[in-house]
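Thread: Haloacid dehalogenase-like hydrolase domain-containing protein At2g33255, structure

OP (GT): Posting the sequence first so everyone is looking at the same thing. Length is 251 residues per the record. Can we get the structure tokens written out before standup tomorrow? I want them in the notebook alongside the other entries.
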Amino acid sequence: MEKLTMTFLLSRAFVSLTLRPSSSSISMANLTTNAKSRLRGVVFDMDGTLTVPVIDFAAMYRSVLGEDEYKRIKAESPTGIDILHHIESWSADKQQKAYETIADFEKQGIDKLQIMPGAAELCGFLDSKKIKRGLITRNVKKAIDIFHQRFEVIFTPALGREFRPYKPNPDPLLHICSTWDIPPNEVMMVGDSLKDDIACGKGAGAFTCLLDETGRYGPDDFSVTGLHPDFKVDSLSKIQKILETNFDLSP
């Protein structure tokens, strides 16, 4: 009887231990395997991540949609407006005018283009560890080319919105992983948009890091969208420590 009671108690203890929720997938992986997850590639968003945000997206959306339509869509989509997806259903002429308006705003952004503080240093660290780096943006390829030329920090592959389907669809990230011959679970997606960058990374099965400089996102946003980034930082300069602490960075 004493032996039976002891077995029962041990079984309950085991069930309690295995069902206890972990604070993150990373900590649970380290707890159960005593080994860090491998990381061999990092993919970045461009506007607002690698570059200082200068495009007035609210003004762009108002110009494309009109004030009334902008307010209606914004009320229905509190986490953000997917302007590219929205105009896909429009007539060819209306789409053309919308793309011209978007291009005008993007050109203004290119004229004021600045590299994000910490971006060059982080890229240097990745290079020192032989970690590949790619880029996915909903901007055009011309903007990527200007970024490469102006700051001499090159990302390969670097995909603009000419690659379809674009973010938040995971296909661009999966394409980069395939090009690198690296599985998505050994890659991290870094970006400043929960609905585009984190959704893309999660959909592909990659690690995700949300850059939130201003504290724009909180627990309610994660709950509403069902998107929970693996990491959240307010500066690119903090990502190096995250990589060194949580991942095996060996080539």
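GT: Both are above now. Quick notes for whoever picks this up: Confidence is low (pLDDT under 50) at residues 1-33. The radius of gyration is 21 Å.
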